[in-house]
Amino acid sequence: MPRVARIGAYRFFFYSNEGDEPPHIHVQRERFLAKFWLESVGIASSSGFAAHELRRIEAIIGEHQPTFLEAWHGFFRR
Fold first, then answer.
1. Is the per-residue pLDDT at 44 higher than 80?
2. I want to staple 5 with a disulfide (CB 3.0 to 4.6 A). Which of 1, 12, 31, 77 is the partner?
3. pLDDT tens-digit profile of 23-35?
4. Sheet of 24-29, strand order
5. C-alpha distances in Å from residue 46, one per residue of 5, 13, 28, 54, 78
6. What secondary structure letter does DSSP report for 48?
């Protein structure tokens, strides 16, 4: 499970067996977990996060989108 970043209370990562899916990033805080698409940043799924927090996470992902996409493509194209 490659960890891409830790920003504040959030851990951003992807699973190493998900290379057949479009680029995305998982984010976790405590027991809460969400998945966001990266090419056009948007939520794919969420468990536990409140709507206002998901908007904040989406903004963070938007700011770091190039870094997250680079990590995704770097890992799955090796």
1. yes
2. 12
3. 999 999 999 999 9
4. 3-7, 10-13, 24-29, 32-37, 42-47
5. 19, 15, 10, 8, 29
6. S
What are the tokens at 24?
A: 């995305």
Host domain of residue 62: 3-76
Q: Which residues does 50 contact at the CB level (< 8 Å), separation at least 6?
A: none
Question: Which 8-state DSSP code applies to residue 14?
Answer: -
Count of domains forming the chain: 1
Residue 68 has pLDDT above 80, yes or no: yes
Non-local CB neighbours of 22 within 8 Å, separated by 6+ positions? 37, 38, 39
Going by pLDDT thresholds of 50, 70 and 90, the confidence category of residue 61 is: very high
